[in-house]
Write a structure and sequence with these properties.
single chain; 18 helices; elongated
């Protein structure tokens, strides 16, 4: 008995040292994108010490190798061994996002946020939960999550674009514009960013700046229908009727279901005295989109019998 104790004291942490060495080697291989070799190192660590730490390390390798089945088994094992493991909850939330299970995304991302002390991990969990809440139509919560998770320096253009759309949807046009200005800096050759930027400027009635943004979009794609629709409306608001007609017809040829282009053609037809055709455009625009201006125009000009009338 005494001899065994002396042996343990003389070599107190050989196994632990080996586990740490294998994990460090695996982590180094993951950083240089060699997950197959990293997996072998994690397997060695796991054989010596089947713990939440070693299972989690192997799970990351499986994830990088697109072995979702093995990845999920390891993550679930981690959560059985350590139910408050923040990283495992985050990875489980990611897996749920890939499978479209938004309720589970919210659950595991929330558990991650309850227990994580790492700012980067917390920000990623907030963005993930925010994206899930968008799908669940939980828009106020989604906005808060994305605002906190993205901060002022994020380069996650997809999530930034989502936040801009949410701001637009609740009438926060200046906030949407600020996001789109960032997106135009990050991806200056994106037609969509410039077109959306012009749209927010239109909503703020800053038509000269909106024209500058829309011209940037059309310089990248001269036939982009949303940008043409935006420019048509700017022309209309600034009294250039001929130019507005030209752009709106070009827009509708390639995107006939654009409610904003139909709105613009509708008001142009009202101005020209063609009420019947104007109401055809406006009632269709009302069916296709939620544009307050269209609702009011239909009430004023199109009577109760028109399609889309509540």
């Amino acid at each position: 008995m005494l001899s065994c104790l002396l042996f343990m004291l003389a070599f107190p942490a050989i196994g632990q040292d080996d586990v740490a060495r294998y994990l460090a080697a695996g982590d180094s291989l993951m950083r240089i994108e060699k997950p197959q070799r990293a997996l072998a190192e994690y397997e060695r660590a796991l054989k010596l010490q089947p713990s939440a730490t070693t299972y989690l390390a192997r799970a990351k390798a499986w994830n990088a190798l697109d072995r979702s089945d093995r990845f999920l088994l390891d993550v679930e094992q981690v959560l059985r061994m350590d139910s408050v493991n923040a990283t495992a909850h985050y990875l489980r939330a990611e897996y749920a996002m890939r499978g479209g299970d938004m309720q589970r995304v919210v659950h595991h991302a929330s558990r991650c946020l309850e227990h994580s002390t790492k700012s980067e991990e917390r920000n990623k969990a907030l963005v993930l939960r925010g994206e899930a809440r968008v799908e669940l139509k939980q828009y106020p919560g989604a906005i808060l999550d994305l605002e906190q998770g993205l901060g002022n320096t994020s380069t996650d253009t997809e999530s930034l674009a989502t936040l801009a759309r949410l701001y637009d949807g609740v009438g926060r046009y200046a906030d949407a514009l600020a996001i789109l200005e960032r997106l135009c800096e990050l991806e200056p050759r994106s037609v969509g960013h410039w077109s959306n930027r012009s749209f927010e400027l239109i909503m703020l009635e800053r038509y000269d700046e909106a024209m500058q943004a829309v011209e940037q979009a059309l310089a990248l794609d001269k036939d982009e229908p949303i940008a043409l629709s935006n420019r048509a409306y700017i022309h209309f608001k600034q009294g250039r009727v001929k130019e507005a007609w030209s752009d709106v017809e070009r827009s509708l040829r390639s995107y006939p279901a654009n409610p904003y282009a139909l709105r613009t053609r509708g008001v142009l037809r009202l101005q020209a005295g063609d009420v019947e055709k104007a109401c055809d455009d406006l009632t269709l625009a009302k069916v296709l989109g939620d544009i307050p201006e269209v609702e009011q125009l239909v009430k004023e000009h199109c009577g109760n019998a028109r399609p889309g009338k509540k």
